[in-house]
Amino acid sequence: ATLNSIVESLKTLTNAIEEIKADNRDFLHRLNEVEQRTDTLEEELEKEKQHTAALDSKIAALAQRLDDQENRARRNNLRILGFPEHIEKGKPIQFLQDALPKLLGLADGTQLEMERAHRTLAPRPEAGQRPRPFIVRFLKFQEKEMIIRKAKERGALDWEGNKILIFPDLSKELQEKRKRFLDVKKQQRDHGVEYGLFYPATLKIFLEGKDYSFTNPKEAQAFWKKWEQSTKENLQP
Q: Where do the L1 transposable element RRM domain residues begin and end (predicted)?
């Protein structure tokens, strides 16, 4: 009886072990399926990431192209700030054709050719608020450039007690790109170094008969630091 019970127990144990083995085989099979699905999902995710990156690149390129086209369309435009509201009395071209030559010290009889001029489309300011700028489109690019040059030459511009500022009319994105050079431009001014910010956003530094161009402000900063360091070393006895 004892031997039979032992045999029965062994059979029961053997059956239990076989069931565990079967369960393990089933578990391993399902685990393998899960791993295969995971690999497939990871591959699909990687493909989707690559596709998204390609789309982002295309969108960025299109945005840059649109911004470039916008700025080319504004090529002959100037943005003029500071003239009080209503001073033009509904005739902005006539007013600016009279005011700008006097403001910039242009030769008597200078007739500026303007295609159009208007205030920006922002809401009309309340009394005491900053007046809206004029947007002016000149017929000739050279004439627009001449006005910018004359404004720089004369420095601070004053019209009947109002400070007048004249800028190229650029897109917001391009304005931001150019603003990034403010710190390095200040360094050049402080050291009396000749420089220029050229369209669309290229800084040129003129040193010892050479010019160095930068489209990245960090690269310009690094160049200037290196130049300063080498200059100091050369001055040491």
A: 75-165
Q: Is the pTM of this model over 0.70?
A: no
Q: Which of 142, 140, 141, 136 is nearest to 100 (CA)?
A: 136
Q: How confident is the model at residue 72 (pLDDT cuts 50, 70, 90)?
A: confident
Token pair recorded at residue 147? 């006005």
Residue type, 72: R
* DSSP states of 146-196: HHHHHHHHH-SEEETTEEEEEEE---HHHHHHHHTTHHHHHHHHHTT-EEE
- The pLDDT score that the predictor gives to residue 1 is 54
- Where does 75-169 sit in CATH, by number? 3.30.70.1820
Tokens of residue 189, six digits = 């001014």
- Torsions phi, psi for 114 (to 5 deg): -115, 135
Break the chain into its structural domains and give their ranges: 1-72, 75-169, 173-234
Class of domain 173-234: alpha beta
Q: Write the DSSP symbol of residue 1.
A: -
